[in-house]
Amino acid sequence: MSIFDKLKEIEARYTELTDELAKPETFADTQQYQKIARAHS
Question: Which among 35, 34, 39 has a CA at the least distance from the CA of 14?
Answer without folding.
Answer: 39
